[in-house]
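Blinded run. Sample ID left blank on purpose so nobody reads anything into the name before looking at the predicted structure. Input follows.
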Amino acid sequence: MSIEALFTYTFLFISLYFEVFLLVSFLERRSRQRILQTVEIAMLPTVAIAVPCFNERQGVAETLRSLLALEYPADKLQIIAVDDGSTDDTLAVLQSFANDSRIRIFSKENGGKHSAMNLALANTDAEFIGCLDADSVVASDALLCMMPVFQNQRIAAVTPGIHVKAPQNLLQHLQHVEYRLSIFNRFIYAALGSVFITPGPFSIFRTATVRELGSWRYAHSTEDMEMALRIQEAGHWIANAPKAIVHTLTPATFPHLFRQRVRWTYGWLRNAVDYRHMLGNSTYGNLSLVVLPAAIISIFAGIYFFFRIVYYGIEAIYHKFVYLQYGGPIATPSFELYYVNTSAMWFLIFASVALIVVLISVGSHIGTGRRMPPLTTPLFLLMYSFLVPLWLSAAVVRAVFKTGVQWR
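Blinded prediction complete.
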């Protein structure tokens, strides 16, 4: 067997094994799932929601209105909006909410999202603190869905179910499918004790735990990833409440999506290096033995398959061109079942794609109650397989040379 074939079969097997592992873990979880008790209104804890803002004048008003509409006792809810040195009219928009006693507004020099979160942390005595990105809106019952999860004292953070906000064009509809898959992943990673990100759209934390761990840090522009790893390094758990629905704005153009995903992947790789002591360490269970290694392998597998397909695609086009140049006849397209490729490699590819569709469907069911995947799922499978390796490759190069990334 050639080295190329060895790499191909290895990556395909790992991909298929990991997908089956996640699906079986989900089915096992479903068979013994317990229903959390609700929390009486009088027993609800105090919660502060920080809204870090940098040049968010277009969407932050809707974000704040969604927080004000939360079904939560007004005397137990604090909303802390932090203008992080915006150069547009963000501060003016925030100040238009100054008359509402639930909202406190701060303005500071630009220092990054982690510094805005730490300013909010320093100005609250709430038992729990959360974050809501200024391009997101939260469902009115989201906080009530999340707080019962904290009845387990080992849980230090809870993540929500994140959906794409009003997708308009094809690129946003593709991300809509991707986010359905992410809903499944976040749900099952939490069940496995393996969450490696506490996303900005409405993750909630125990305030005492955040302070105990030293608050938020600058972490290669991906503070939500670093915090998740640090929480679990300290022996705490991160849970997921998929019925706590948040809608977040996604990039509408490929350049914006490319920059966002390069930043995410670069931050993930740099944080993985910073927390490399966790990899393969049985102390951290599934996170270190399965999920983190699989996530790292998937990055390099995606890049490998992309360049493999491009290489053989160019080679096939070249040979076809030479064939036609020498007068070869143009074959009439036809389909014969006999000529269907039934090699082990193609079987693994088809099985892996089929399992991804199943996981997307499960994510849809978890997030919306509907079992069918979004209609654009076939386009997602076709187009994303060529788009994702582009930003993966760029992020790996940046991570190797430690060039850093820009937020926007």
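Unblinding after everyone has recorded impressions. The radius of gyration is 23 Å.
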